[in-house]
Amino acid sequence: MSLGEAREVCEDVHAYLQPDGSWCLRFGQDAARQAKAAGLAPLEAARALGEMAAYHGGQPLTCHA
Predict the structure, then answer these.
(1) Do the domain assignments include residue 60?
(2) What pLDDT, in 10s, does the model give residues 4-43?
């Protein structure tokens, strides 16, 4: 599987499978790069995750990549 693909995971149930390093892992790298460029320390940049959780109603963040 080089690019994402739909695959039957059990009878009549299909899932879209993405390879490792796809959009969610890339999102983290981009966010880290932007935080560093803005002069934020790693701990300051990590605190943004709390803001994201608050934005999503306090629910934990999930990544199914």
Answers:
(1) no
(2) 788 888 888 888 777 665 556 777 778 888 889 999 988 8
What DSSP letter does each residue of the chain carry, written as one string? --S-EEEEEETTEEEEE--TTSHHHHHHHHHHHHHHHTT--HHHHHTHHHHHHHHTTTPPP----
| 47 is a domain residue | yes
How many folded domains does the chain comprise?
A: 1
* One-letter identity of residue 7: R
pLDDT at 50 over 80: no
